[in-house]
Amino acid sequence: MSCHFKGSNIGGGINLDGYVAVESYAKNNSLVGSVKHSGFSPMPKGQPKLDDCKISKIEAWVKAGSPNN
Ligand code: HEM
Predict the structure, then answer these.
(1) What is the tens place of the pLDDT at every residue in 36-50?
(2) Which of 34, 59, 61 is the pocket-test mutation for ligand 1 (most atoms within 8 Å of CB)?
(3) Mind listing the pLDDT tens digit for each residue in 3-35?
């Protein structure tokens, strides 16, 4: 899965590389909102929505308090 990474590939000024960076998007709901295409900038941009299984995993992880595992 190619989302937002450090270096020349950083997309839209959004860095999702590393736990601390992702956690902030988990906590403000934009991570789940964007992959579910509900209310936030739809992600992945210009590509088909992630499958339901991947979305459920992300959602479950955020609901569990986005543990650093
Ligand atoms: C599953 C993969 C991806 C995830 C999880 C993801 C996640 C996110 C999140 C959480 C934001 C912030 C949204 C907000 O605050 O409303 C964002 C913004 C953004 N993302 Fe992604 N992203 C993904 C793939 C991509 C790809 C492939 C591209 C470009 C080809 C991209 C380009 C952007 C841009 C340009 C923004 C800034 C907001 C905008 O202009 O719409 N993302 N992304």
Answers:
(1) 999 999 999 989 999
(2) 34
(3) 776 555 556 677 787 888 889 999 999 999 999
Q: Whole-prediction pTM value?
A: 0.86
Rg (CA), the chain: 12
Q: How far is the CA of 65 from the centre of ligand 1 (A)?
A: 21
Q: Which residue pairs from 10-15 have beta carbons closer than 8 angstroms and sit at least 24 positions apart in sequence?
A: 11/45, 12/41, 12/45
DSSP conformation letters of the chain:
-----SGGG-BTTB---SHHHHHHHHHTTHHHHHHTTSSS--SSTTSPPPPHHHHHHHHHHHHTT----
CA-CA distance, 45 to 3, in Å (whole number)?
9
Domain locations in the chain as residue ranges: 7-63
